[in-house]
């Protein structure tokens, strides 16, 4: 698997958003032959979206990925000054489920949000870990995913910088939104994901701007 990155030079866009995560952010489909990042659905005349999709990476690897390709992009972004992005959307944790327990997964996911809020963006959106075919087969696997999402939501409620959003597209093997591997989405599925997240991201951008500017 490979990383998929896009990083544009500063522009006149009113808002800048970074979508960060694993293969679901990269838009991995067709067995890795094609990519359709959901980030493209978040863009508008006033919103520019960069994305970093690290296919196959766990949240743990993202936390300690100082030598990753993404680190070059993120390091360059921080050179723009304080908070180069208005919002960072983080979608990760799927690759951790089969390797680690729920508390460890949440701890690393939360470290990603803390780091983003400190160095990259005025706020973050924590997208929940999605359902999958494996979770249908193994109740313990689903229980772990549910525990991760519940704790991530609880932590987000205790901050003003992070908004938790449940993954908006449930897994199904009949709607054409998911790949036969039961883990990745189809091109149509990534479009549905981006379309569902778009109003949430736009509302969040407006609320962060209002909060920063006050009520006048």
Task: Give your account of this protein's structure.
The chain is an alpha/beta fold and 216 residues long. Helices cover 41% and strands 19% of the residues. It is built from 7 helices and 8 strands; from the N terminus they run E-E-H-E-E-E-H-H-E-H-E-H-H-E-H. The strands form 2 sheets. A 6-stranded mixed β-sheet has the order 1-5-2-6-7-8, with helices on both faces. A hairpin with a 4-residue loop joins strand 3 (28-29) and strand 4. The longest helix has 27 residues, at 187-213.
Uncertain spans: none
The neighbouring-strand order within the major sheet is 1-5-2-6-7-8
- Assembly form of the protein: single chain
C-alpha termini separation: 49 Å
Structural class category: alpha/beta
Features:
216 residues; alpha/beta; 6-stranded mixed sheet; two-stranded antiparallel ribbon; 7 helices; globular
Topology diagram in text:
Elements: E1 3-6, E2 15-21, H1 23-26, E3 28-29, E4 34-35, E5 47-54, H2 59-63, H3 69-78, E6 85-91, H4 102-119, E7 121-127, H5 133-137, H6 139-157, E8 162-165, H7 187-213
Parallel strand pairs: 2-5, 2-6, 6-7, 7-8
Antiparallel strand pairs: 1-5, 3-4
Helix pairs in contact: 4-6
Summarize this entry quickly.
By secondary structure, the protein is α/β, with parallel strands linked by helices. The protein has helices at 23-26, 59-63, 69-78, 102-119, 133-137, 139-157, 187-213, and strands at 3-6, 15-21, 28-29, 34-35, 47-54, 85-91, 121-127, 162-165. It is globular.
